[in-house]
Amino acid sequence: MARQQSKIKELVYIGIYTAIYFLVVCISTGVLKLTVPIFNSIMIPALNALLAGVIYLTVLDRVPRFGALTTIGIVMGIFFLITGHFPIAFVPELIFSLLADWLQHGTRGGKTKIYLSYTIFSFGLTGPILPLWFMKQAYINELVSRGKDQAYINHVFAAVTNVSFVISMGSIVVCSILGMWIAQKIYDKHLAGLRGTRS
After folding, report:
1. 37 CB contacts (<8 Å, ≥6 apart)?
2. Which of 42, 52, 59, 72 could bridge 168 with an S-S bond, Cβ 3.0-4.6 Å?
3. Spatial separation of the C-alpha atoms in residues 51 and 128, rounded to whole Å
4. pLDDT in tens, 107-124
5. Burial of residue 13 (number of CB atoms within 10 Å: 0-12, 13-18, 19+)
6. What is the mean pLDDT of residues 153-178?
7. How far apart are CA 52 and CA 74, in angstroms?
8. Quick one: three-class SS letters along the chain?
9. Please, what's the b/e burial string for 154-181 (b: 16 or more CB within 10 A of its CB; e: otherwise)?
10. Which residues span the membrane (predicted)?
11. pLDDT tens digits for 169-185?
12. pLDDT of residue 111
């Protein structure tokens, strides 16, 4: 009975922190759309990585076993699938969350492992933007099939260059590291009573 109650509690935690993570994604998206006119969508994963570190640490401590990170990735992937994103936008979310989950719970290591797994996890949000560079024509065809005009398409691809790809991907790495560093400072100061897999 105690074991079953523990599993139910973990499922509740996963649900709560998945919802909070989704809210942070929405906040990141909204902030960029309001402040950055062109470059916004390809910077969403980086800004989210900067903001979501505390949520990541909380998930690791509350549910210290394989599956929680993957579940968050699955939920985000389903969201991408049902909200009109490019058809395979959900694939990176599933792959990167699963890889982060395996790295965090299937390998040995300390804080370095947390930084690495969080960085990998943060790349899950690249699903909607990677096709802009690697499947451009298919992406354009998808937009046309949805009735988008040439002006809209030009706006979507205005910032899609080799340079912007390097900036977008590089910023995810930098913001993941910085975001996790900030998160650990906050966590150690205010939430030190929650301990799980972080040692």
Report:
1. none
2. 42
3. 19
4. 877 889 999 999 999 999
5. middle
6. 93
7. 17
8. CHHHHHHHHHHHHHHHHHHHHHHHHHHHHHHHHHHCCCCCHHHHHHHHHHHCHHHHHHHHHHCCCCCHHHHHHHHHHHHHHHCCCCCCCHHHHHHHHHHHHHHHHHCCCCHHHHHHHHHHHHHHHHCCCHHHHHCHHHHHHHHHHCCCCHHHHHHHCCCCCHHHHHHHHHHHHHHHHHHHHHHHHHHHHHCCCCCCCCC
9. eebeebbeeebbebbbebbeebbbebbe
10. 12-32, 38-59, 66-95, 115-135, 156-183
11. 999 999 999 999 999 99
12. 83
- What residue type is assigned to position 171 of the chain? S
Q: Is 197 left (phi over 0), alpha (psi -120 to 50) or beta?
A: alpha
Amino acid at 24: V
Residues 53 and 118 sit within 8 Å (Cβ to Cβ): yes
CB atoms within 10 A of CB 1: 5
Q: Among 41, 90, 43, 49, which Cα is nearest to 70's? A: 90
Contact assessment for residue 89 and residue 81, using Cβ atoms and an 8 Å cutoff: yes
